[in-house]
Amino acid sequence: MTIHTTLADQAILEELATLEPSAEEAPSQVKTASAQRASGAKALLKVGEVIAVSRRIGRARAESEIAALLGR
After folding, report:
1. Which of 4, 6, 30, 68: disulfide with 21, CB 3.0–4.6 Å?
2. Residue 72 scores a pLDDT above 70
3. CA distance 12 to 7
4. Which pTM does this prediction carry?
C-alpha cells in the first residue's frame, strides 16, 4: 500500500526525524534522548501514515487500514 502525504506533512515529518540532541544534555542523556527522539519520530511517521489514509478513504475502510498499519 502506498501512503500519500502532502508536501507540508512530509517536510514536517522529515524534520522531526532528524532532530539532534541539544548541547546542554549530558553524554549519558544524549544517547537516551536520541533513542527517544528516534522512537518519537517513528511514531510521528506512523501518525502521518494514519492521517494520509484517513484523508484518502472512508471511515470504515480507514479503521481497517489503520489497524493494519498498527499491526493489530
Report:
1. 30
2. no
3. 9
4. 0.33
Query: How confident is the model over 13-42, as pLDDT tens digits?
Result: 677 666 655 556 556 666 676 777 777 777
Helices and strands per DSSP (H, E), number in the chain:
3, 0
Domain boundaries, the chain: 41-72
E strand segments, the chain: none
Q: CB–CB of 48/72 below 8 Å?
A: no
Cα–Cα separations (whole angstroms), residue 55 to 50, 63, 70:
9, 12, 17
Please give the Cα distance from 22 to 16 (Å, whole number). Answer: 14
* CA-to-CA separations, 9 to 16, 53, 59, 60, in angstroms, rounded: 11, 13, 21, 23
